[in-house]
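To: structure desk
From: M.T.
Subject: fold request, one chain
Message: Could you run this one when you get a chance? Sequence is below, nothing fancy, just the single chain.
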Amino acid sequence: MKGKHGAEAYYKGKVYKVDPIKVEEVDPTGAGDCFDAGFVTSILQGYDIERALKRANIIGALSVTKRGPMEGVVDKNILEKWENTIK
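Reply: Done. Structure tokens follow.
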């Protein structure tokens, strides 16, 4: 996770990158934890590295849009909506 610079993952000699998601940052508390949880959960659900990184990036970005470490948690419906709007 590179915050406003997007995110990168490295696996078996390959680099995966996703662009940043522009949101209005209110509170960055917990963004890294949300990103990590989104990535690990996506991998455990069977998504490939590229899609897991995209999902984690969305989750991390949206987590900073509200004040507090748990208020910006993203549910499945919101995640899917954002996934469909981002290349």
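Reply (cont.): The CA atoms of residues 58 and 82 lie 7 Å apart. Let me know if you need anything else for the meeting.
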